[in-house]
């Protein structure tokens, strides 16, 4: 959980410190970038059978084949 994180080191915290919101809500990084007109509301996580993979936002770098899409449904609790 990223709530109320504290860093007690004497140097700057690592660049990977923090939380990235990937939920359906209006405060997620995807919703915020989409509302600013920077990306389409798309996130992808590609995994490799040999380990590794990548995470992308928006649809600028999507290859024309080899990707299977699963749409996210809007939350009914909002």
Salient structural properties:
single chain; 78 residues; mainly beta; two-stranded antiparallel ribbon; 2 strands; extended; Aspartic proteinase Asp1-like; aspartic-type endopeptidase activity; TAXi_N
In short, what is this structure?
With 78 residues, the protein is mostly beta strands.
Description of the molecule:
This protein is mainly beta. A hairpin with a 5-residue loop joins strand 1 and strand 2. The longest helix is centred in the middle third of the chain and has 7 residues. The two termini are 21 Å apart. Belongs to the peptidase A1 family. This is Aspartic proteinase Asp1-like. GO terms for molecular function: aspartic-type endopeptidase activity.
Order of helices and strands: HEE
Round the mean pLDDT to the nearest integer and report it: 72
Shape: extended
Helical segment tally? 1
DSSP strand count:
2
Neighbour order of strands in the largest sheet: 1-2
* Residues in helices, as a percent range: under 10%
Family: Belongs to the peptidase A1 family.
GO biological process, one term: proteolysis
Organism: Trifolium medium
GO molecular function: aspartic-type endopeptidase activity
